[in-house]
Amino acid sequence: MRLHHFLSFCVLIISVAAVAQQPPLQYERVLLPIAITGEVPGAFGSRWTTYVAVTSTADREITIRGYVPAPCAFGPCFPSFAVPAGVTFFPRVEAGKVTQGALLLVERQFAPQVAVHLRVQDVSRQAQTWGTEIPAVREGQLFTTPFDLLDVPLAAGFRQTLRIYDVDALPRASAVIRFYRIDPAVTYPNQPTNPQPAPDTLLAEKVITLQTEQRPESPTFDLGYAEVSDFAAIPELQGADRVRIQIIPATQSLRLWALVSVTNNETQHVTVITP
What we know:
Radius of gyration: 23 Å
Number of strands: 18
Helix content: under 10%
Strand content: 35-45%
Oligomer: single chain
């Protein structure tokens, strides 16, 4: 056996022994709602990609998993997910084939000291725009009860996509989606008028089942997902100018998050509507 192969083997054995003696790390899931590998074509000649930036300000090296690690220099080795303090890096995150999003696992003890930034950009127009920030969602921002996405426009010239995420990837999980007409002329809801403003009008209700994607790394990275697009094709929404979308978890213990992206067909500018 060559010397450098022997040394690599010894390092591997020592690393396995050291890991075996340590208690397992606890992680917080951080949802990246849209993760694009390379570029994907979109409508009207657009080309989309995402950028992820991460910084840890912990007072020591911590572990963050879920991105593609650096290749080993030589011989067999474990991939390293160690992140030093104070270094902003731009990890490559593999997109799902079904769920569109991805999960980062941040060492739970130090999660409040980790900043994650996610940006989506139409690179066919990158000289005109830096793109749009998409929230990186922490576990404390997930919903187990009904929640709403407000002031979603249905005007011509825009396309809308509702994306719903289940970070626990529960099998056959379902949710109820309700669309309400809203009136932007209502400025003073409690002013004595005759008649008083009416509650938002329920236009449509859908029950959806989220798809579950199993990731090759580990079940910890599995993600549930559902998508509703082409709002103009929903008959009950015809004639509505703006809507409120309510999402109701229908499966026990379901933890959801959602967004609506509103994209201008001419400029490809994206507006993101979040809970």
